[in-house]
Structure formats: structure tokens, C-alpha cells
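Before a colleague's protein record goes any further, I have to sign it off. Would you go through it and say whether the fold makes sense for this chain? Take the sequence as given and treat only the C-alpha cells as open to question. The record follows directly below this note.
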Amino acid sequence: MRVSKPKLHRPARSAVSIAVLMAMYGSTFGVAHAQDDAGNATAAPPTGDISKVVVTARRRAELIQDVPGAVTALSGAELEKQAIPDITVLTDKVPNTTLKTSRGTNTTLTAFIRGIGQQDPVAGYEQGVGIYLDDVYLARPQGALTDIYDLERIEVLRGPQGTLYGRNTIGGAVKYVTRKLAPKPMLDTKATLGNYGEADLVVKASTPVTDILRVGGTLATFNRNGFGHNVLTGQQNYNKDLWAGRVSAELLPNSDLFVRLAYDRTVDDSQPRQGYRLTPGPAPANIQPLPGLYDTRADLYTVVGHKQQVINQGTSLLFDYTIDPTLSFKSITANRKSESYAPIDFDSLETPLFEAPAIYSDHQTSQEFQLTYTGSRLQGVAGVFYMKANAFNKFDVLYNAAGGLSLLTYDDIDTRTWAAFADASYSLTDTFNVTLGGRYTDDQRRARIFKQTYLGLKGSALLGNPSAIAFGPPNTDLGKDQLDRTDKKFTPKVGIGWKMAPDHNLYATFSKGFKGGMFDPRMDLTASGGPNTAASLAKRRGVAPEEVSTIELGLKSSMNGGRLQTNAAVFYTDYKNVQIPGSIPTFDAQGNVNGFAGTLTNAGKAKIDGLELEMIAYLTNALSVTAMYSHIDAKYKEWYVANGANLVNIASSTEFQNTPKNAANLSVNYDWPLALAGHAGTLSLSNSLAYKSKVYQTEIVRRTGVPSLDASIPGNLALSQGGFGLWDAGLVWTSADRKYQIGLHGRNLTDKRYKVAGYNFSGFYNSVTAFYGDPRSVRATLDVKF
């Protein structure tokens, strides 16, 4: 077996840099993978010293033990072996991390790490967790949730990553790292069949064209019937109809130069995912909730005939050149774009009360240059980054009031951002090192926001209804000359690492991050008393950037040749200017709902502290156990809202959303030799139990004394999910030459029903709708390599 040797950057004679969380090895997390002569991944056996995981969390290849931050690496081969469909499953395995499908979508990602994130994908709202594909930042969450089909690994970085990854990574970052092409011709076919009519197929192929040029690609199709259906139309609900592809060409003229040109495209033609209405319909019908939690009465299709489709695609060019043994240069050029047609029926009823056909599109161009130095005691990376991006959406909100009203919202948001950064680690002694880093960011945001009410239940003219009639003057009409702001910020990092004993590494870090200021994309100036009132002028200024400062302490221990590894980390985060988006109804003189207004505000201050524990034990060569426990205490300290002429601090009435206080996972894997059809191989039995405590989908859950807020509390509580556990299991046979793999996999084997998202529009026809996690699934997989 030929083991690949990536260029590692590591302090001389020092096993730890300034900070590290363990790499989860073994059957559940981050098995280190070498390559055989055909380029196929091969798991390192758990004998002797456990193989190390190589990551690029610090923008350079290094052992995960040397990374100055909380990083978990998960190998793509092991994720595929377990038939994990997408990264939302990692929510059950990674400490203080929530990754889920955004409400009302199929491929939009909502990410929260250590209490920080953003769940509204409307143009203008920025993520709190950065998503990266091969070091290319994905500016928008639409299409970011894709099935796992061509990955080398996934890296989850927890805590602010403002030094190396910049704005909008204040909670952390999720990195997709794709596979490089094999040095020999390769063909790999994987088929999956499961309940709910699941039928997936992934085909990978690559070949060298010359001694210095390789080409390859992957095509995949993922299909599944819905977990429920529309009781009116018979259409599927929660179904999957998606195909994806990726092609690349790699040029290796010598050992010092690597060039890769890659293109990927994903098309999601699944039916719109509509929610389950928890509340009865309005009088006089008082329509009661359906018996099936995945079923819906949504009639948006018959009202506007709006089909869902999400197309996401991108091109990247990587240029990686080793100048000399200590110095290397990297260039990353990328262009990405997506377009989404996303109809949502907020009331989920057969009557056209509260519908929202929507179109989202975005495009971005980015360029990054990096220079990496690796000396005997000093290692570091410095670079510059530039991105130009546009996020656009237009959506109607249709109301069955006064003969039919449609409220158009039109957002056109430009972003220009550039940054310069550096990060260096220096070993003062053989056992003690320090790290210093910093990033300066210049972030400009310009926006056009237009809101107009129309007569006509079929929607506005911009969304296909030429007969729509404007109803009064625009609610908002602001151009990019009126909505223009620039935020500049320096985000430092400092840390120390001490190898207090040969197998015990202690670290401490301090880091800062920020998320850019922004404008309310649902800004309604008429709801603020007119365009020239103090409230309207304040909205035009937008909200201030979020800022975090985090202190982290940790201890990593490795014993018995790496067969037992335990890691503990504690952290404290000071969180300022928390950006809270929301919507409130507006009413006409008769008290009928005639629209809605955005309520984007800076909540004030919050404090977050937590604990993360991880463990892996190879009890024998066949039996391994991994465990995880995380605890987080996230509290708002200041959140001021207007109550008449007064300001009221409602912090004591709130909870952090998408942030369970406690989470745990216990996974056990047992391997034993088994020959099938004359082929030697290994049979692996895995079991995983995961637990999460109570989760809130929205923040305000106790009485505030502000009537407009207290009216939403029953709906917020109805959307909360009490503590629950999930059980997954799998049985996988792998041939000794790794050419064949057969698996039987079960997820959520107890068929638990649990809420993962929802809309609370209590003021809009008493509408509260919920979305649920996947029910029990069973699937069989067959993977054949040629």
C-alpha cells in the first residue's frame, strides 16, 4: 500500500500548536484515510499508533492536533459507508452544532454553532456560520445542503473564525473538501434502495489523459417519495427529486505545481416542502389539524401554479505552487450562482389566506491569494481576499382580505468585501508555542428595497399577474443611493499551547469575529409612520455588525499509542449587537390584515459559555467506542424593545433558538472477518444513540409585558421541541480489496417525531406551522469499484 504524504505544517518537535479539539477517528468520525495504488480510500487499521487526520482548517495542510481551534474532521469514505445522506445528520454527532434543512425548503441550509447562526435565507440576511466548498465561501445558503457524493472529508470548525475565514464566521465554519482525482483509471458505482421509494445512484470515474493531466467526474441522482402528501392535490410532501454532477481537470506538471479546474451543478426538482398546521383554521370553518404530521392542505399550487426548483452551480480554479521547501503560494478563483423558485403556503390551508410565491437568485465572484511559510519553529499563512456578490429576491405575500391583496417585496443587495489576513505560530521551546493572527475586513453593502401592495389574489405584476393593480403608494421605495453602508473591522486572535506531558496537550485561545451590518429586506416605511419619521430614518441606517469575543481552554490527551483519546474544551463568548429578524402584521382601518413589516433589530448583548467533551477508545482491534457530550448556557443580557414611549429589556423572557443546552452521542462499532462468495472481507456492525435536550425555534418564550410580542408566545412554545433521542444502526460488509461494499442501514429506528423548524404567524389568521425531522428509514447500499 502506498500512503500519500501531504505537506504538513507543524511546529518542530512540538505535538501541539495553540489549540485543538480531537479528531474523531474510527467508525463514527474522521477515520484517517490513505490511498492504494488505484486511488481508493483505505481505512487505517486500529493497531499500534492510530493514524492521524490531516485537515486544512488553518488554510494549510496539517495534523488536526495542531489546529488552533475546535475542529472535527469527518471522512467522506466513512460518511458514505454509513449511508449518511447529507450533513444534517452531523447535528447528532458534533458538539454544540445544529445543521438542518431550512423551513419550507429542501436544499437550503440552516447552520448554528455554539448558539450563533441565522435561519432566514431572505436576501440581505447574513449567515452566522460560514459554508465553504474547497475553500470557496458560499455567500448564500440556498443549495448549500447537498447530498454527500464526492467528498474527501467535512471539517466543522467551532468558534469565531474571523482571522482566516473573515466575516460571517462568528459561530464557526463548515468546509466541504472534495476528492482529488486518482492517479490510475477508476470507476466507482454506488446504488441505494430504501423505503419511501428511495432510489439513488452515484457514478464516479476518472482517468489520466497524460502523465501530467487527469480528468474525472461524478454524476448522482437522489430520488424518494414523500413522507406525506397533499390531501387536496395528492402531490408528494417531503419528497426528493435531485440530481448533481461535478467534473474536474487536474494538471500536475511536476511535484511542485498542482492546478485544478472544477465545475459543479445541482438541480432540485422536489415538490415544495409545506408545513403541518398546528392550529385550527380561522372561523367559521375552524379546520382541524390533519392526523399525519407530514401531510398538508397547502393550496398554493392551485392559486399561482408556482413550481419549485433550485439550481446551484459554480466554477473554481485552484493554483497551488511550492516555491521552495519552506514557501508555497496558492490562488483560489471562483464564480458561483444559484436560482430558486420557492413557493411557501404559510397557513397550510385549502383556502388562499397566506401564500408566498418567491424567486431567489444570487451570484458571486471571489479571488483569494495565500502565501504559506513552514520553518523549523515558525509556520504561518498570509493572504488577501476579495468578493463581489449580489443577492436578489422578489416574493408576494397573498392575503384573502378585502377581495384579495398581494404585498410584493423586492430586494436587490450588493456586497463588495475585501480583506487582508495573517496567522503565524512560533515554538518558543520544544513544549511551548504561541500563535498570533489578525484580519482586516472592509465590507460594503448596498441595497434596493421596494414594497408595494396590489389588488389581485393572483399576485403582483412582477410575479406573473399583469392585471394586478397597485393599491396606494409604495410601502417602501429605496434605491442603492439611499441604502449604502460600509463596515470595517480588525479581528485578532492570540493563543498558547503547552505540551505538559508527552500525551497531554493544553491550549488557550482568544479570538474575535464579526458579521457585517445589514438592512432589513422587509423594511416597511408606512408601518413606521411614513418615509421621513425617526423610525424610518433609523431603518435606513440598517443594523450594526454583530461582534463576538471568545476565550477557549482545552486539554487533549492521547494514551496507549492513541488507542484512547479524550478531549475537553470550555469556552466563553461575549456576543454584542445580536441581529434579530422578524415580521409583524399590519392592519387596515377595519382591523383586517393588509400586510406585514420587518422587525430587524440589534438585540443588545448576550453571554454564551459551554463545555465540549469527546472520546474515542479502541478497546480491541475489532471494537471501538466514540462518545460526545456538549453543554451550552446561552443567555441574552440586554434586548431592548419599544413599548409605547418606553424601552423595555425583555432579555429574561428569551431563549436562544436552535441551541439545545445538552447534547450527547454514543456510538459503538464492531468488526469481524467474514468471507462472502469467495471474497475475504470484514463485517461491521455499528450502533449510535443521540440525545438533544429542549430546542426552541424562536427566541421569545415568556411574557414580556409588550402586547405585540406576548401575542406570539403560544405559537413559539408550540414550535419548541422537548428533549428526545434517536437510534441509528448499520451492518456493512467490505471486501478485503475494498472493491465491494454492501450495507443495510437504519435511521431513527424508533420512528420518533420531532420538530426541526416552523413558522409562527399567530397574528396572521392564527397560523402556526411546523416541519418535522425524517421518520424511520431503512436503506440497502451496494458499492462496486472497477
About this structure: Residues 1-51 have pLDDT under 50 and may be disordered.
